[in-house]
Design a protein that fits this description.
Layout (H helix, E strand, L loop, with lengths): L1 H14 L3 H20 L5 H18 L9 H20 L2 E3 L17 E3 H7 L5 H12 L4 H8 L3 H23 L4
Antiparallel strand pairs: 1-2
Amino acid sequence: MKILNLTNEIIEACKQNDRQAQETLYRFFFPRLLPVIKSFTNDEDEIISIFNDGMLKVFTKINTFEGRGDFEAWVFRIIKNSLYNNYRLNYQRLEIFELTDHDNAQSPGILKKMYYDDLVKLLKVLPEQSSRVFKMFVIDGYSHKEISDKLGISIGTSKWHVFKAKEKLVSVIDLNIMGYG
């Protein structure tokens, strides 16, 4: 339990803008999150930039963390969102694993990158509404709330369409990779 208290002490010190505590947190998460960022890019400068952007968001939003839940998961989500935001802004391609579950190894390592035009072609296999919602969320970067407002659907329905679209796209991609498509 000493580690948990130390973690809580560091979090509280970071909330007080303590630079030493921030450095401790930074050094704690860097080796843990580096492999996640490296799965998107091998450019060392970009890796550092993405991590720094994410940690800056962690430090500026740390006062919103109320201790209800896992702090590491909260940091991971912020870093992941920084990664996705960077990727959406700087590239017109999507990584295949953004469409698949990391724990689902049906097609391990077969395709590394999927380009925008390929994804747009694949969207034609989806029902019209699912395709529209998926495109708005994954390609255009809208939040579920924004999609809900624009299309007049609930946030839950938006999430469902994205989930179902991902499920269908992974299935179609797997069939194509295996030579059945």
